[in-house]
Amino acid sequence: MSDINGKDNESAVKHVVIVGGGFAGLYCAKALASVANVRVTILDRNNYQQFQPLLYQVATASLAPSQAAFNLRSVLLKQSNIDVRMTDIISVDLPAKTVTGKNGDTYSGDYLVLAAGSQANFLTVPGVEEFAFPMYSPNIFGRG
Questions:
Q1: Angstrom distances, CA of residue 63 to CA of 23, 48, 52, 72, 107
Q2: For residue 107, what is the DSSP state?
Q3: What's the pTM?
Q4: What is the pLDDT of residues 35-67, one digit of tens each?
Q5: C-alpha span between 23 and 87 (Å, rounded)
Q6: DSSP secondary structure string, 10-36?
Q7: Residue 102: which residues within 8 A CB-CB, separation 6 or more?
Q8: Taking a C-beta distance cutoff of 8 angstroms, is the pair 99, 92 a contact?
Q9: Are 20 and 115 in contact (CB under 8 A)?
Q10: Does an H or E element contain 128, and which?
Q11: CA distances from 129 to 24, 118, 126 (A)
Q12: What is the pLDDT, as a whole number, of residue 4?
């Protein structure tokens, strides 16, 4: 494999670890897909991406589920330098460029991209955080 300067050097391949398969993580991976001396690993707790603002249209049968969610691996199928792994990241070591998953799996790279998503903003409205079920919640039937 050739590096940026055209020299054959396998050690010149850089590894980019992307935490999050949402819009930012996927866009970053797709931008790096055409770079010859880059290997990318996308880490996400799900093997799919969903566009949550369209979920109400899926619920009312205005859209098919496939129009609001899609498999990450299928989008990146033709990108041989991108690997998608399912894991729930619980810690990040920025100086070491390493992340650790809930099951003890560890990933490190030359570069670390943190695109883990968002959290619901309750805008300091009293009672909302305690009693509302945000669309971002992994467990809508209770806290924790």
A1: 20, 17, 13, 20, 37
A2: E
A3: 0.76
A4: 989 999 999 998 888 887 788 888 898 988 888
A5: 18
A6: GGG-EEEEEE--SHHHHHHHHHHTT-T
A7: 87, 88, 89, 90
A8: yes
A9: yes
A10: helix 128-131
A11: 26, 15, 8
A12: 43
Q: pLDDT digit string (tens) for 68-105?
A: 888 888 888 889 999 999 999 999 999 999 999 999 99
pLDDT of residue 96: 96
Name all domains of the chain by residue range, CATH numbers in brackets: 10-131 (3.50.50.60)
Token pair of 69 as six digits = 């969610």
Q: Which residues of the chain form beta strands (DSSP E)? A: 14-19, 38-44, 48-50, 69-71, 82-86, 89-93, 98-101, 106-108, 111-114
Structure tokens of 91? 């810690």
pLDDT of residue 86: 94
Q: What six digits make up the tokens of 94? A: 């920025």
Cβ-Cβ contacts under 8 Å for 10 (sequence gap 6 or more):
1
Model pLDDT, residue 65:
85
pLDDT score recorded for residue 56? 81
